[in-house]
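Lecture 7 notes: from sequence to structure.
We start with the chain below.
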Amino acid sequence: MKELIIATKNKNKFREMRTAFKAFPFDIKSLDEFKELPDAVEDGKTFADNALIKARFFSRLLNRACLADDSGLCVDALEGMPGVYSARYAVLRAGADPERAHDSPDDANNRALVAELDRLKIDQSNAAYKCALALVALDGSVLQTEGICRGVIKKIPRGSGGFGYDPYFYVSDDKTMAELTLEQKDKISHRGDALRKMVEAVSDWGVER
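Predicted C-alpha cells for the same chain:
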C-alpha cells in the first residue's frame, strides 16, 4: 500500500488524519487533488456505516487504498441528534430531506443547535463527539475503528480554534474544544482516539512505520 487517499476535502480533518499516518511510507492525498469527483451517498444509519460507504466508494473510483471518516456530535438532551446529520443540521432543521440535504456551514449548524436548545429551554446537556474510521485496501480488505470524546454542550461559545461544534463543546468546566492546541485536542478528541486505534490496526497488518 504505497498510496493512501483520505476521503475528505475538509482541510482540518485532512491535516489531523495525515499527521496520524506520517510515520508510514505512504503517499497521502486528499480528494482535493482529484477534479470533478462525484459525492458518495452517505445513507447509512451509523457513523461506521457511512465511513465504510465512503471509503469503498472512493477506493473503487480511484483504484487506490482509501481512508474515510464519519463523525459528529450526539447531544443527550436531543436524543442523540444531530448525530449522523451533524454536517447538515441547519438544512435539516429548516425542513430539508435528510437524505438529499447538502452540508451546511459550521456557523449555520451551530446556530441551529443553539436554536433547538432554546426551543426546548435547555441551557446545557451532556454530549459526545463520535468518530468512525474505515480503511479499504486495494484488495477490498477493511479495517474499522471508532473513537469518542465526552463533554458538555453549552450555548455560550468560547475559542476560535477547531471547527464544527468545537466552540460549544466543553471538555472541562471552563474550556471548550476550540480553546485547545492541536496537540491537546489530539490527545482527547474522538478523531484522535479513532486514529490511534487505526494506526495500530494498520501496523498489525504488517505495514512498517
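Points to note: The beta strands are 3-6, 27-30, 65-75, 124-136, 142-154, 169-172, 175-176. The mean pLDDT is 91.
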